Amino acid sequence: MLSLTKTRVLGARSVRRSLPGFSRSYASTTGATEQEQASQRDLREKSVADALAKEEEALAKTKQLRQLKEQAHAMISTLNKTPTTLVHERLEKLQREVDSLANQDKVKQLDEELEDFMLKQMQLPYSEIVNHPWSVAPKPRGASSASGTSASEEEGGRTQIKSTSTNTYTSDFPQLKPTPDFKPYSEQELYLRQLAHTRRSGTLGSDLTNVYKARNEVNRPRQIEDTTVASLMAAGCHLGHSKAMWRPSTQPFLYGEYDGIHLIDLNETMSALKRATQVLRGIAGNGGVILYVGTNKNWEQKRAVEEAAKRSRGYYVHKRWIPGTITNFTEVTKQVNSNSRMEIDMGDVATKRELTEENDRIIKPDVVVILNPVENRNCITECIKSRIPTIGLCDTDMEPSLLTYPIPCNDDSMRATSLMAGVLSKAAEEGLKRRLEVVANSKNVREGNFSRRAQA
């Protein structure tokens, strides 16, 4: 027991003696570890800084490349809008300037760099680079050997551009975007195909002449001398009503019947039309008042009646005939102001004289032209009572004895009524012009006599 205790004490002492050396070696080991950690920290920070610098450099390069691409796109869009002639002039000028430079090797290097940038970095679609001179379509394998050309010659043909100033659109249609074969033609391609067809075969075929235009019957009506039976038949003037609506008094005007419809003899129509035009020419030449009546709801007849009245300086009713317009004029026109009435001479010029009781009487029309007399029986009755002559289109369902100058014609066709109104108003216009010429000549003669008397 005593020996065991002694041994433990000795062991403890030996441990105490060895502790100072252990502490010195532990401190040295700790210092070396800290230095290694500091060096590793510095290495990590340096690597991180290098990585950040490279990333910033890459971002700056990407940004610069993106800006360069945007500028290139803007320049390409500007070239697309520039006419081909101006582009060629600018190219020639730039080519002369490039040729005048001393360092041609630098120009060639810049040309290669820009070409590489346009072909690799821009990555333009095929529709935008197909018309560029620096664009080379891929050739199938064996094409070079079959044609006897080598790869070096192909490369030489590809780089035959002298400078980058020729890298522009040379096509006449730089905005055209070609479509693939499996897709239909675009609107631009269809328009160009139409132009090509017009240039090649647009002059082939026959030319249509003497084409009928319905507006000419109203705006530029024909004279009675130019009116023929063929023109009347083309307008449908020969078509009458069915046999059930036939009036026997129109028997002298009939040519026959077809499919249950009576046909009007156009020879009778021509003779009646010539007689009516002579009447209107004489009335307009003597300063008479002409009234046109056409109350059909169709706007074509309203337009024809209005233009006919303007052409002959007459009057017209194209909406509705108010009963009593002629026989009871005072009551019907009470709302009309008295200032709207004036006195005019034979030259249709206002005399500026006050209307006396003798002159301020009711003025009635000298002739009434009715385009649809069946619907205007009241107008015909008032004209008969007032002894006013009437000219009207007499269809097979109309009583011709009610009209002073009946014209056998179809009164339901707008083309026929427009033709008749135009021919009649043209005759009245001729009489009006003749009257104005006579008035002007008489006025000149009167002024000449007055000047001679003044000189004498």
From TrEMBL:
SUPFAM superfamilies: Ribosomal protein S2. Residues 142-151 have a biased composition (Low complexity). Residues 135-181 are annotated as: Disordered. Residues 160-173 have a biased composition (Polar residues). Residues 51-111 form a coiled coil. InterPro entries: Ribosomal_uS2, Ribosomal_uS2_bac/mit/plastid, Ribosomal_uS2_CS, Ribosomal_uS2_flav_dom_sf. Keywords: Acetylation, Coiled coil, Ribonucleoprotein, Ribosomal protein. Pfam families: Ribosomal_S2. Belongs to the universal ribosomal protein uS2 family. This is 37S ribosomal protein Mrp4p, mitochondrial. It comes from [Candida] anglica. The lineage of its organism: Eukaryota, Fungi, Dikarya, Ascomycota, Saccharomycotina.
